[in-house]
Amino acid sequence: MELILLVLLPLPLGFFLSSRTAAFVAYLAVHSFVFTFQSTSLTLQWVRGSDAAFDRSGATPWPYLVVNAVIYGAGFGLVALGAWLRQRRESRRTAPVDLAAR
After folding, report:
1. Residues 47-58: pLDDT tens digits?
2. Does an H or E element contain 81, and which?
């Protein structure tokens, strides 16, 4: 679920929202909701008797933390890339044209 979100949302948020801060906060809010939904879904499966998503040894799930942190960071990077692309596009439109250079 987080990967689908990563592919679909952060770049357009950064590109279409005029405030970079608003784009970051919007991505943070949506990602937090999806992460909570994903965690709840896994917990409900565990309560119903499935332990396929969980490590049976009882060890701390560091790989899960690392993978989710990478996805989270990549999303913020894509938001920043979208904002940079928007800024670059706007600067091309507003740059003065030198007609004497012909």
Report:
1. 888 877 777 777
2. helix 62-94
